[in-house]
Amino acid sequence: MSSNYIALADSFKNELKLLESNLMEASDGERVQSILVTSSKSGEGKTMSAISLARKFALENNYKVLLIDSNIQSPKLHDVFSLPIQPGLSECLNGNAEISQACHSTDNENLEIMPLGIPKGHISQIIKDQKLEKLIAELKADYDYIIVDSTYVLGTSEVSMICSIFDATLLVVECESTKWQVVKTAADKLTSSNGKLLGTILNRRQFYIPQFFYG
To answer: Model-level pTM?
Structure first.
């Protein structure tokens, strides 16, 4: 894994601790086990946030964590962790690989990576067949946390189609770049798709979506 990613991840571990606490408070004490990480648009640091959260849970909390790449627009986790892109998520969903084959180990025994794999077929059919929902439910028996690095919300349909499957959705916002109107549009799209939007990550700080976003 790139040292640049490690250094940046360690630089905001305090914010991640706050995020972990607020996740539990926002969910009324219910167990948040599967977390979808997304953003309004490309280039907002979504993948970095997902990696940082996964590393924090695995390294500092000693949770068993699986980090999944579902970003079909621009998969990155296999490159970051120097892994083959397959077998991965796509092969599991298509029945061409077992979960154990698609989960790749890292230098930390508590953190495993499931790369995207090579997608075959449209995601709408996968959702219709409930393959992803069944896979996440099965993974919950083996991992304390499942963190999913997804594609961005606006201009794509994938996130709105899968967000309801997860216990929580986090929206990454690029500080002083993304307009609040854009964030509101993304937040509305998630909530209208029954996504459990619990908070945002704003440039290494954690905030909840302001109430007026839903006004």
So the answer is: 0.83
